[in-house]
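Hi support team,

I'm opening this ticket because the web form for multi-chain structure prediction keeps timing out on my end. I have pasted the exact lines I submitted so you can reproduce it. The total is 1048 residues across three entries, so I didn't expect it to be a heavy job. Is there a limit I'm missing, or should I split the entries? Thanks in advance, R.K.
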Amino acid sequence: MDKLIISPAPHIHGGDSIEKNMRGVIIALIPALLVGFYFFGLGALIVTLVSVISCVLFEYLIQRFLLKTEPTITDGSAVITGLLLAMNLPSNIPFWMVILGALFAIGVAKMSFGGLGNNPFNPALAGRVFLLISFPVAMTSWPVPSPLTTSYLDAQTGATALSILQGSDLDIPAITDLLIGKMGGSLGEISAIAILIGFIYLLVKKIISWHIPISILVTVALFTGILHGSNPAAFASPMFHLLTGGLLLGAVFMATDYATSPMNPRGMIIYGIGIGIITVVIREFGAYPEGVSFAILIMNAFTPLINKYVKPRRFSK
Amino acid sequence: MKTFRIGGIHPEENKLSAGQRIKTITLPERVVIPLAHYSGRPSNAVVKRGDQVKVGQLIGKADGYVSANVHSSVSGKVAKVDVQLDASGYKRPAVFIDVEGDEWLETIDLTPDIERKCHFSKEEILTKIQSAGIVGLGGATFPAHVKLSPPPGKKAEVLIINAVECEPYLTCDHQLMMEKGEEILVGVTILMKVLEVKKAVIGIENNKKDAVEHLSKIAQSYPGISVEPLKVRYPQGGEKQLIDAILKRQVPSGKIPIEVGAVVMNVATTFAVYEAVQKEKPLIERVMTISGKDVKKPGNYLVRLGVYLSEVVKQTGGVPKGTGKIIGGGPMMGRSLMNLDVPMAKGSAGIVFVNEKEALRKKDKNCIRCAKCVTVCPMGLEPYLLMNQSEREMWIEMERNRVMDCIECGSCSYTCPSNRPLLDYIRYGKSTVGLRIRKRQTEKV
Amino acid sequence: MNTILISILILGGTGIFLAVLIYYVSEKFKVIEDPRIDEVEAALPAANCGGCGFPGCRGFAVACVEADSLDHLNCTVGGIETMGKVASILGKTVVEHAPTVAVVRCGGTCEHRPRMNEYDGVKHCFIAHNLYSGETGCSWGCLGFGDCELACDFGAIKVNPVTKIPEVDEDKCTSCGACVRACPKNLIEIRKKGPKSRRVYVNCRNKEKGHISRKACNVSCIGCKKCIKVCPHEAITIAENLAFIHDDKCKLCRKCVEACPTNAIVELNFPPRKIKVENAELQHVE
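Hello R.K., no limit was hit. The queue was backed up. Here is the completed structure from your submission:
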């Protein structure tokens, strides 16, 4: 090179990139996905594929033809949105609904705000809630887990652990079933162990910090513990709350979404506590059996406020 | 193992020249001794064209308190007193000397013996340090005598010797400790005498285990001096970070270390103090590292001030093929050089060659708000926010978000997964906010 | 019936009470302001550029109303037309200020001033300027990253992508001075626009000695003083190896343009030359 390059310091870079982080999240999602594929079979596979492909496609089309910018689908964020959206859906949902959800997630919740990093709400959750409000029946008729089934739309449906709790008098599943995921529910939320494996992977790779998931889980455990302690007949045990519904999936993968969560540990903890409290309130006192997605979306709205008033620990106060 | 409490990164160490014995660079035909050494005011030349000078003779007298004397590093004839382009392409005053022989001032003790006992009083030592033109050799080149005279009412309790050398590639301080360990410890006792402190701690990062052992062994015979191995973490060499790591005390925002009873001195500066006080030798040379992944023989070299860097590089194997960027100093905080026709200054700790492939920055992308910059910031700031505000010229908000606390260590830019030029913008904001604060203060007066 | 009556009474009563309250408050805290300020403000262009030296157009309007004479007040955007309106509102007289325009004093295009290194930081003049002298050998010249373009509210100054030097659109330039403040190298000057926009100026800011500046750039001012010798109006001075043409003395004779050995003095908007012969004769006579 005939000309020397001049630039301000620092002259080296750590080599971290958006792609690396996104790839890490995708890898961390794999165990939970595999469990979903195992228990819900072909239906889960179809929903996941449709969701991922349509998310990527919508992002590409919007950037190419509407925004007229360089498409950034290679960074992997659309893939993650697709995966998370699918994991929050029942495996017997018609695929056109999935496409609609993907369109809302990418088109409205993500790209209309300026794409990756600028969206105030988690796109996958926004898509999910959009579907939940639009198609309440399809979104709450959960297939019963039957390993490696080939049924899709015709899957046998049953209740989730949480909806059992809310009204019906069926037996509550055993803790071991909850751990491995042998229960009804969205296709990615069922197995606590698989999600925890992903959580540990994310922590080891330093893709997320522990603050948000742990503060959510601790808050939920404490709050439900107090309720359970005061009236065991009316309120379920903390263990049950932790392992059921989308709590773990939400705490580990959705609440920790970079763009929509606070920017420093103190804020993250406040944010986590908020999600925990709202989740329990919706579950125990609200009309819906499940509250994680609403809780996260509500706290997403508070993130800018938290960022403004909660500052990181400064050097020397 | 101790380290500082907030933020920090661990860049690839690349200490390629570790363990290389210090070699002396032979004198060129001409040296150009800069009269300004980055910080403080340039000194006034006291020689003129045609004067004969000896090694160690005063050629530039300090102009004011925050300024340092400059001495001739060679013997010969003054060719002219003129301006010379510095590393950033701006003109700085300098003395041009044609080298003739190597004749030292008679007062300088050139014997290799170590003078362990210091007979001078506190004031005498301070005067010697001041007249020897000693500045902080860690990079900031702040005059040492200013640092050693605490403001009235403030008293130092601990002397901290900064032997951290947390910048990747650089090994000059490490090698100096290995070869001049005893002298450095004598230097520490002298500094302790000046500051009237009973305790001194030498902080060394644990990637220099041999230096930790070597100095600990010698330190046994010097009461009050201890060696503290530190966990390897950048920017531990920052004054405030080092005090936090060793004393668990945090210097308040906008204050200097004496506020928490500490004075920090660089290890190379300590060695220079030893030479100035015990050997009457002013600051005319220093050790520098020549390194880089493509450099055939990375090493540590003793270089006289004013020698063109091109001459140093010529003697140490030349510019490696495919060099895209030359850094003066370490890769985290050093400056990229426009060319090598720059004279050696007191603050030049090394030259690092970066090849074309690694020289160019990657294209920056959207901020994904991953908060990694906030996590690594050693001052607990929010780099993403400061950059945003700097782009929008929101100076009042930047000041409120404590941009003036930024130590410009570069951890944020280093970490950012989107390759955003965080520090570039923060520096812009910091300089503008600094100007605004100064303007406000003068208006108040 | 009763319900309707009660609600009418309550709502009506509240309404009347509040109306009285508002009236009282507005009377009590009335700010008495010269009504002419509003009138003057309406006559101003509402660009709020600050070119007049006051904070926004309203600030200027207040100053106009309060001032004894309008001699030292001038709206650079609106020019004499606007000032005439202001004067008629206030019943004052107005002096015509010569129209001015921003002038970028650097001719160091890529062909005249070779790039010696490659800048790889944020493309922002201020940031590059704080780091080092620039991509070329000239530490005084234009960096070409367009801080002036960003600062201009009127879209009147644009960096030419080919020459990497900003160019001023005279029709749009209001000489508000935002670019002057934005340029870290102090290259931009507000100069008299001149008759028919004709101007002669030194297109360089390099204060190095001649041989140094010449080495860095083909069209730099080398401080040779030839222009001073040919200038019949004593409009040119040289300080620190740099010539400067004072626009209040310059009569646009263009002799200096001819004399400059490095073409550092430029003429703008003149018709093509046809007086070359005359000039040559003049030199012969000398």
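A quick check on our side: The CA atoms of residues 131 and 308 of chain A lie 32 Å apart. Let us know if the file doesn't open in your viewer.
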